[in-house]
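Figure 3 (text version): structure tokens given as input.
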């Protein structure tokens, strides 16, 4: 039987071409995403060069899986960026897996009802593209039964192959850390570790907004950011709108400390936004990163007034770099073109990541 293949990981995928030469993919492993014509060309180049190996494939698949709930469009620039993703450590991969299993089996004491012994068989069928001709074939029955459970877990964990998965599950999570028991239950130690990862202020309903204060961005805040936060059930806090008699920096720090999450919009690349996002991140407060597409990675030619050495004022041509700093551009950003786009993606992101 011939399956449509995911362009990222080769797993079975429900692919649908669009009239703009893009393809909408619903992959059994990666999840839902769109890859544009330029993205396909860039991905082919990466594969043809030999740079797109199993490690890159695992990282990119995991990134797509992690960002489900927001519109994922893989164009050429996004593919180039995803190729630079850092491979997680063994500890980080184990944490991804444990968190995913806890989400699927949230009641303590519940058996993890996955057949982990079938990981090697499922990955082997995909790697060799050896799908049996008949749905009644025992291997096809095994694949259809186990792949929907195992492949998303493999993706989230950035797992490269069955050997790595078995090491992380058995040697690390079960034998070393004892976060999972041999009876396939998350142990008290496992639940305690997950509790230690919980974000700060779980009962707070406040959402701090860090942004550039310009008339254009104030309109974006009022009509889209603020409304999305309220629609999701939270209270937006924008320091420019709050009456206070304290030092502004103390007030900002206090509001961030008491928030459940912050929305940091990097349009304008303001230093204050970087500071506020970093401060929240250090406190384990969830940060939702957003940026107008024109400010993500672009060079703008402008004519501005300038005083020359002879003291005359003239218009001169300059190049203005509009780029989010490389320390942050690996984060999952909501890149928006207009307010409606921002509202939809922000609301989806809050609902899917803030619990």
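Below: residues designed for each position.
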């Amino acid at each position: 039987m011939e399956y449509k293949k995911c362009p990222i990981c080769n797993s079975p995928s429900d692919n649908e071409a669009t009239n703009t030469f893009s393809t909408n993919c619903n992959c059994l492993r990666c999840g839902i995403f769109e890859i544009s014509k330029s993205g396909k060309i860039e991905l082919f180049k990466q594969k043809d060069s030999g740079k797109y190996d199993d490690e890159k494939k695992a990282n990119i698949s995991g990134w797509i899986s992690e960002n489900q709930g927001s519109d994922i469009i893989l164009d050429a620039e996004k593919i180039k960026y995803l190729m630079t993703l850092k491979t997680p450590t063994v500890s980080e991969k184990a944490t991804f897996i444990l968190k995913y299993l806890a989400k699927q089996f949230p009641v303590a004491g519940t058996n993890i009802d996955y057949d982990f012994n079938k990981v090697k068989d499922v990955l082997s069928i995909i790697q060799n593209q050896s799908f049996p001709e008949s749905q009644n074939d025992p291997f096809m029955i095994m694949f259809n039964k186990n792949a929907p459970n195992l492949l998303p877990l493999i993706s989230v964990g950035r797992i490269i192959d069955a050997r790595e998965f078995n090491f992380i599950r058995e040697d690390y999570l079960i034998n070393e850390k004892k976060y999972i028991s041999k009876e396939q239950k998350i142990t008290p130690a496992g639940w305690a570790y997950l509790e230690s990862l919980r974000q700060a202020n779980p009962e707070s309903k406040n959402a701090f907004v860090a942004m550039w204060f310009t008339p254009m961005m104030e309109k974006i805040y009022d009509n889209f950011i603020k409304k999305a936060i309220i629609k999701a059930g939270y209270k937006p806090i924008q320091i420019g709108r709050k009456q206070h008699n304290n030092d502004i920096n103390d007030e900002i720090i206090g509001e961030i400390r008491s928030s459940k999450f912050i929305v940091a919009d990097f349009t304008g690349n303001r230093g204050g936004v970087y500071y506020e996002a970093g401060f929240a991140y250090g406190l384990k407060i969830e940060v939702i990163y957003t940026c107008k597409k024109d400010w993500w990675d672009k060079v703008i030619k402008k004519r501005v007034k300038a005083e020359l050495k002879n003291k005359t004022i003239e218009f001169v041509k300059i190049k203005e770099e509009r780029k989010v700093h490389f320390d942050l551009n690996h984060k999952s950003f909501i890149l928006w073109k207009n307010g409606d786009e921002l509202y939809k993606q922000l609301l989806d992101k809050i609902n899917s990541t803030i619990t």
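The first helix runs from residue 37 to 49.
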